[in-house]
# Entry
Amino acid sequence: MSILWKRKDLVGLKDLEAEEIQLVLDTAKSLQEISLRPVKKVPTLRGRTVANLFFEPSTRTRVSFELAEKRLSADAINFTSAGSSTVKGETLKDTVRNIESLKVDLIVMRHPASGAPHRLAESLPISVVNAGDGINEHPTQALLDMFTIREKKGHLAGIKVAFVGDIVHSRVARSNIWGLTKMGAEVTLCAPKTLLPAQVEALGVRATSNLEEAIHEADVINLLRIQMERQSESYFPSIREYANNYQINRDVLKHAKPDVLIMHPGPVNRGIELSSDVMDSPYSVILDQVTNGLAVRMAVLYLLSGVRNRAAKKASVHS
Amino acid sequence: MDSDELNRAVTRIAHEILEKNKGTEDLVLVGIRTGGAVLAKRFQEKMESIEKKQIPFGLLDITLYRDDLSEIGPQPNVRETEIYFDVSGKKVVLVDDVLFSGRTIRCALDALIDLGRPKSIQLAVLIDRGHRELPIKPDYVGKNIPTSHDEKVVVKFKEHDGEDNVIVVTEGES
# Structure
């Protein structure tokens, strides 16, 4: 842990170096202990204000960020505008103006448009954390996935991770691919051809539509939610057929390693991508992911908050 | 301060801690990362060999409690606080290598109290170099070394640096 964090924003894992990912994971490890204390709070971000802007529905990510902010003693304000598909370019600009007037120190944003947090980060002197943008990235989810794998398996290098499910629409998969390949893990994507992105080899990963082949050597199976709301677009004939071919259940796990980890970013469609009994079995680390997400988000908030200071200082000198 | 002097100071402080606390009952050692970690471990070994009793030992990282986090640039790296016992009701001996402004100790007191309600907190340091900025006073001191502000006290331990010694250097040298 010799390097120091120098970035103002966390918009994606695409831009990060392996050492920076390592630093976030190590910092998260150090911060984990706070949530086990009788007083689950440290004064580190006292007096700082974080705005959570969620232009898309979210439960666990928003709650996780909010709790992370509170554990670090920051003040949190929440904006949610669930549903509205008109939240685009111009509105974002207006949002920026409003946020600036409120003198917040850090913005956590989820937005349906890919690239929205990048634009915000460029136009603001304060830190921006991407909490999911369109089908582009969801960096804190990938970081908590990597943290969980590292915690359970001891390391990331050489670990084989299979992603099964709706990969083409998954920002979770995309961030994980960037992160895991940088950390030396081997990634396999598995889905019906219609749900696989084009030219996956360019990303340095393998792709297959055969579930057995995908999970045979996997140390980790990371499942992605089948997005029911997209069924009208007919990516596969029926939910039942998808479940028949791609569901992870006891039978399918006979083809996997005995110590394979089952992960899922949530929310899970029980009985579709994952059978109920496996979800509640020792294979599943889905609830560990939720716990670890808190420490990872605390780490990100902590690391970014240092860099903001310098930027703000510079700004005040100029004004 | 060479290896022998350092060792004698550790031995003396270990005896002083045991004398003042009338033995090891409810006594725990907490080293402040990173400088206090090795020193606290040495106190533990010394005191356990004197009393033939085990003394709980923990490590405290004070980074999250620093009062200068809003001033400095990139955030300092946080290391793990490893205190696996309940500090409530315990006589805690905080250990650090060099006592200077007292700000680190202020952080450590806040951090410790967030972990529980110790019966008492005492402070043991190897070097007291003066220049306190807060009303903090050590209970056990290895050596008082008067310094000027532009000097720096460098403490080296065999465990990390291959040798035991304490030197005073002027800023710019090292």
